[in-house]
Amino acid sequence: MPIKILSAAIIGLEAEVVEVEADVGGGDFGQIAIVGLPDTAISEAKERVRSAIRNSGLLVPRRKIVVNLAPANLRKHGAAYDLPIAISILALKNSFKISFKDSFFIGELSLSGDLRPITGVLAIALKAKELKIFNIFLPAANAAEARLIKGLNIFPVDTLPQLIKHLKHRVLIDLQLENASIPSSPNNDFDLLDVKGQAKARRALEISAAGGHNLLMSGPPGSGKTLLAKCLPSILPDLNSDEILEVTKIYSVAGELKNKRGLIVARPFRSPHHTASANALVGGGSWPRPGEISLAHRGVLFLDEFPEFSRTVLENLRQPLEDGEISINRAAACLKFPAKFMLIAAMNPCPCGYSGDQHKTCLCSLNQINNYRKKISGPLLDRFDLQTILGRVNFSDLNNSRPAESSAAVKGRISLARQIQARRFKNYNLFTNSEMTLAAIKIFSPLDKNGLKLLERAVNNLNLSARSYFKIIKLARTIADLEQSAKIGDEHLNEALQYRPQLE
């Protein structure tokens, strides 16, 4: 009678149930055959499993064993099937006191029988709860992650012999319940107290954070662009419980969880190098994984030296910036990863960095400057809600003894503005003003006659695109929220228009 063990496969960000079936048959003694579209890592599992069983003091049935991973049309990859394969083989000759239909088994085995951590545990735990499979046996290093999902019985396993003793009811593994509380967000290493001068850029950063708007900063080297960007996480509101699970799930699948608590509690801040490939930025690969834009979900993607990125790579940002998700098409499937992030970019005004500087002469020709700026397409520039130009920091600002406003004070105003938006969009699938659709703009951001006339002049004089027109309204809505104003006034529109300089 074949033995059936339940496990799971990660497809994109979701888990799918995989049935691991084992049976004995004819053929060479001790041979293990794995079928069901396994990849190389799974095909090699028979050697890992055989050694792990032997080094654990257990016996492999001395007949040919066929292990089937069902459904057969679903491609499987990774080493997380080692544990269910081992249990299915051992269950052929051992009597285990457990109902396998109520349990998930996942984990990679070492040759000595120890269990190694795997990726995607949070997605598997969510699937288990959805299917009302309440017992999960997994590597002890992944237990904290699985405990995030309430209502599951989590059994942390260190070694294969330990699990066998539990399955035979000899020595039971201590059951672990879900985490009782979510830890607080860690302190940020950067604070706006450290920023000297740059009042307009600080204001632009505050507006950007309050409404989730994209920001492009241009200025000479040393003007504080990178420092301002790194201060952004310190003024963003903390992740709520739903966002924590959402972000942690992405990091779990990507294998990016670094702490033992299994939680991402701080808003992501991703800063890839300008040599990053398209796959690194948007995700992909033969087995598609989340890229930097998905790892920045609900947080910040900071692109320093913006024009130095490949134009092809940058153009890949246009669709996710508009839709809040990225679609990755492969022959086997089409996968979607979330990508609702704030894009913060920094660039020099020219290759040498000193075009327009009053104190240092620019060494670039007009043709060099034009070619440098042409690396960023017009449609991509149009995705930025705010664009601000930073100047050189004055000596008086550098030596000003009067302390600047702290990140904590700015965060307080931003949190109030975000609370206003949360109440506004409570019945809509929206989080920030930047995500408003055209229908939502009509409902939540109506303009009076003076405001419409002001924008009409702006559209005609500045040659604004339709996208820019609506982005200005969203931006004005955020500025009004920062002032806790229910109505968008002319002063809010005028300030929003100040952040629309065109790079030429």
Could you outline the blueprint of secondary structure elements for this entry?
Elements: E1 3-11, E2 14-25, E3 32-35, H1 40-43, H2 45-55, E4 64-70, H3 82-90, E5 103-105, E6 108-109, E7 115-116, H4 121-130, E8 135-139, H5 143-146, E9 153-157, H6 160-167, H7 199-211, E10 215-218, H8 225-231, H9 241-254, E11 269-270, H10 278-282, E12 283-284, E13 289-290, H11 292-295, E14 300-303, H12 311-315, H13 318-323, E15 325-329, E16 334-338, E17 342-347, H14 366-373, H15 378-381, E18 386-389, H16 395-398, H17 407-424, H18 438-444, H19 449-462, H20 466-482, H21 490-498
Q: Categorize the overall geometry.
A: elongated
Spans of 5+ residues with little confidence (pLDDT < 50)? none
Main beta-sheet strand count, sense and barrel state? 5 strands, parallel
Distance from N terminus to C terminus (CA atoms, Å) equals 74 Å
Instruction: Kindly report the average pLDDT value.
Output: 90
Sequence of strands across the biggest β-sheet: 11-14-17-10-18
Second-tier CATH architecture of the largest domain? 3-Layer(aba) Sandwich
Percent of residues in beta strands? 15-25%
Structural class by secondary-structure content? alpha/beta
Q: How is the CATH topology of the largest domain named?
A: Rossmann fold
Count all strands and give the number: 18
Provide the number of structural domains: 2
Q: What is the C-level CATH assignment of the largest domain?
A: Alpha Beta
Count of alpha/pi helices: 21
Helix content: 25-40%
3D structure, described in words:
- This protein is an alpha/beta fold.
- 36% of the residues lie in helices and 16% in strands.
- The mean pLDDT is 90.
- It starts with a strand and ends in a 6-residue tail after the last helix.
- It folds into two domains: 3-167, 2-Layer Sandwich (Ribosomal Protein S5, domain 2); 192-418, P-loop containing nucleotide triphosphate hydrolases (Rossmann fold, 3-Layer(aba) Sandwich).
